Amino acid sequence: MQPIRPLWNSLLLFIVPIIIGQLLAPWQSTQMAYHLLQQKVTEIKMATEERNHELDIALSSQLAKFDFNCGANDMALLRDPRFYSTHIRLQGLELASGKSCSSLGLGIPLIHELNHDELPASKYGLTATTARFNTEQEVVAYARVGDNLAYWVLDNSWSHQLIQHSCTNCFYLEFTQRHQGMAPTLFPRGDRSIKTENSNYSQSFLDQRQLIKQTVWAGKALKEYALQQVKRYGLWIGIAVGCLLNAIYWLLRSYRRSLKGLLQTGLEHREFIPFYQPVVDTRSHQVVGFEALLRWQRGSELIPPNTFIDYAEEQQLILPMTEQLLQQVINDLPLLAPEQWVSVNVVAAHIEQPLLRTLLSDCHHPAPTRLTFELTERKPILDIQAATREITLLQQLGYHFKLDDFGTGYGGFAYLQSLGIRQIKIDKMFVDTIGTHDLKRSVLDAIIAFGRKSGMEMIAEGVETQEQADYLHQQGVYLIQGYVFGKPMSLTELADWQQEWQLQYPQSA
To answer: Is the Cβ–Cβ distance between 238 and 21 less than 8 Å?
Structure first.
């Protein structure tokens, strides 16, 4: 399968979040509709509280100044801009004498028309204008001062503006006035048909005096508006996410391309070198061999392998790296004791093709008894027949293979049976379970039992404590590799370490 070109990758990363956002919009629109309804209720509630507060201050101040004679002072107050605000459509007085006056000048017997005697007996109250010809009724606030009445016809345009804001014809508002012992009065605002829809929903609240219940209804129109909003927001969010993913993609691509360039430069400058970690036989404390571990010496900086090994394998650069490492190991072998071997890691590609065999042939098949190879399980062997053939040919030349990271990868027991490998390395993952209650402890014991029964040579790697080394020795695993004896070292450091080791264990010399 051919890799997709970077521009196509970039286009997909940009488009996919947008498509996902649009596909998810119907599911998100319901939540958005409820959120918009809640937002509208909060908006109406705040506007009501603000309006009531302003009216309380204005009406109480105005009421205290009336003479209740419809004279010059009363007319001035009725028309004073401080009191005749945008919240009031009309205001007036109805006197006990039967005389009346209003902000229009002429007296309007509004309260008498509402049947004065049926009004609640409280000093302050709310009522409504008479319903005629199916038009909206106005809210009327009134106050009693003796037998005189002051009234204010409140402007309802604020409620129309609020329910039409942002989303036209999406909300229906009902004011329900409550009087003890009287039937409630209903003041509808907006499209009444919303209340009759099958899928409508609503929220209610009471004002601070508990006199009026307000209910906001929403239905199909709000859901459609919410869907449009979600799609719009989803589009912009999708575009933002797409741009972010593209930025990450190109930065990562740039980084990986630059890393590949650095690795190739390192190969040209022969910066990949072996570090040797000792393998000790705990029966004699003899250093029987070493594992050659790949290190990147870039100038004075030693770069740890976990920062580049996986990428090098992905880019097939591990093959020339291993070749460079192997050549250096071959050069170093004469500097080590004749009885000591060195193990070099190889990957599946080395034995699925005659790469390793060709490399050894070019070097005139050096030191078959001292040069061994560890086949890692990190990547699966895809062509097991070719791998078996190559390993068999190399074994016939005297070279030996170990199965590295045994039990952690793809092949395990199947590789031992198919490839004819007689040596295994027990991974640090299992060694770390010694002295613990980790479930993998039983796997460690099973691997050791299998190795003993099958006559396998076993090496435990990643051994860090004497307790681990002692347990493995008791179980018949005598070849130990790990920090408990020595860390990976350069050839110079290794020479000094071996001198100290021989002083500590003379019999191992």
So the answer is: yes
Rounded Cα distance, 507 and 285, in Å:
8
DSSP 317-362: THHHHHHHHHHHHHHHGGGS-TT-EEEEEE-HHHHHSTHHHHHHHH
SS3 32: helix
Of 369, 479, 344, 348, the closest CA to residue 419 belongs to 348
Beta bridge partners of 402: 374, 423
One-letter identity of residue 24:
L
Structure confidence at residue 391 (pLDDT): 93
- Which residues of the chain register pLDDT less than 70? 1-4, 112-122, 178-185, 208-211, 256, 407, 409-412, 507-509
Give the helix/strand (H/E) hosting 456: none
Confidence at residue 184, expressed as pLDDT on a 0 to 100 scale: 63
Among 374, 380, 458, 441, residue whose Cα is nearest residue 414: 380
d(CA 402, CA 457): 9
Cβ(37)–Cβ(203) under 8 Å? yes
Residues 6+ apart with CB under 8 A from 102: 78, 90, 91, 92, 93, 108, 110
* Nearest Cα to Cα of residue 298 among 260, 271, 269: 271
CA 477 to chain centre: 45
What DSSP line would sit under 101-161, residue for residue?
EETTSS---HHHHT-GGGS-SSSEEEEEPPP-TTPPPPEEEEEEETTEEEEEEE--HHHHH
Which residue matches tokens 């003899």? Answer: 286
d(CA 169, CA 191): 6
Segment (H or E) for 467: helix 466-474
CA–CA dist 393, 399 (Å, integer):
9
Distance CA 509, CA 506 (A): 5
SS3 36: helix
Name the amino acid, one letter, at 181.
Answer: G
Q: 279: how many CB neighbours lie within 10 A of its CB?
A: 25
Bridge-based pairing of strands 400-406 and 423-426 is parallel
* Amino acid (one-letter) located at 238: G
Answer left, alpha or beta for residue 169, where phi above 0 means left and psi between -120 and 50 means alpha. left
Query: Sign of the CA dihedral 34, 39, 44, 48?
Result: positive
**C-alpha–C-alpha distance, residues 401 and 424, integer Å:** 9
Q: Are strands 272-281 and 286-298 parallel, antiparallel or unpaired?
A: antiparallel
Task: State the SS3 of 55-92.
Answer: HHHHHHHHHHHCCCCCCHHHHHHHHCCCCCCCCEEEEE
